[in-house]
Every structure is written in structure tokens, then in C-alpha cells.
Amino acid sequence: MSDWSPETRLALRAYVRAVALADPLQRDLARTYSVALGDLHALRLLRDLGEATISRLGAGLELKPSSATNLVDRLEAAGLVKRGTDPADRRVTTLALTPRAHEALGDRALVESSGLVRRVERLAPGERLLLASLLERLLESEPDEDAAPNEAPAPRSARRPLTAEVAR
């Protein structure tokens, strides 16, 4: 039995339902560009950085080096990132977006066809600002800030599925 408050349960239920709204966009991105919705954040960061190293991109995404390398491998295989060499130091591998990545980042038609824009625009301007503010606060919060430093998560077999808990 959870000790979540009714407000927390209500918020989690709404959040899980809202995340499902991204499914059509996720499918279209995968089909069109072989990229996941979450990978667009990496592409946007690399666009903002200009050419960067894997370690710089990984640091910006708060990824371990091996995870950053795997991400770049996946993005390179999808034709979205190209590796190069730093002219000042040929030992340094640089990353840059390909034209296909710029196309993916600018593809408004995929977002519009997903229905997300229509749903957000149905909200009053103040509601849209509130939604953006709350989501940004959610993204800024540290998920484990209240957990004990060395506390291991419960074994998977002992955990209740989130969807079952939220649906209560």
C-alpha cells in the first residue's frame, strides 16, 4: 500500500496519461528519422554547442561516458550525427549535426500531425504558461534527493507497477 497523497496520485495519473499523448509523435519520429523523442534533446544540445566532443555532449546531458558513446553511435547510425577530427588536435573526435538532423529538429509537421499542438492550444494562454512552468519545475527536480545515499531500490519483484498504483 502506498503512502502517496490523493493529490500525488491524481498528478501521477494525469502525467502518465499525458505522456501517452506523445506516442504518435514518437512513432512518426522513429519511422521518419530513426530517432526517439528523447534523442531530440541531444540533437538540440549539439546544435546549440556547435561542434562538440562526445564528453562535452555527455556532460551536457548528464550521461556517463559509455552512455554518451552509445547515444552518439545510435545517432550516427541514423545519419543524424557525423564524427570528425579537431584540426587543432587530430586525437580529438568532434561531433556535428548532419543536414538530416537539422531537418528532424525543424520538422513541425510531425509535431502538428501528432495532435499535441491542438491540445496545447486549447488551453488558455495563462494555462499554457502554467503548464510550461510546472513541467519545467518537474524536470529541474532531482528524483532521488530524498533517498538515503546508499539505499538500494526494492527488488523488482517487490515493486507494484506504477500504472497499477496510479490507477487506484
Structure commentary:
By secondary structure, the protein is mainly alpha-helical. The chain has a single domain, classed as Arc Repressor Mutant, subunit A, CATH 1.10.10. The protein has helices at residues 6-19, 23-33, 39-49, 54-61, 65-77, 99-105, 108-113, 116-121, 125-140, 162-167; strands at 52-53, 81-86, 89-97. Strands 1-3-2 form a 3-stranded antiparallel beta sheet. Helix 3 (39-49) crosses helix 6 (99-105) and helix 4 (54-61) crosses helix 5. The model is unreliable at 146-159 (pLDDT under 50).
CATH architecture label: Orthogonal Bundle
Strand order in the largest sheet = 1-3-2
Helix content: 55-70%
Total separate domains: 1
Q: What's the number of helices?
A: 10
CATH superfamily: Winged helix-like DNA-binding domain superfamily/Winged helix DNA-binding domain
Please compute the radius of gyration using only Cα atoms: 19 Å
CATH fold call: Arc Repressor Mutant, subunit A
Major beta sheet, specifics?
Answer: 3 strands, antiparallel
Note the gap between the termini. 10 Å
Low-confidence residue ranges: 146-159
Count of distinct strands = 3
Mean pLDDT: 85
Instruction: Determine the strand fraction and express it as a percent band.
Output: 5-15%
CATH class designation: Mainly Alpha
Order of helices and strands: HHHEHHEEHHHHH
- Characterize the overall form: globular
User: What structural class do you assign from the helix and strand content?
Assistant: mainly alpha
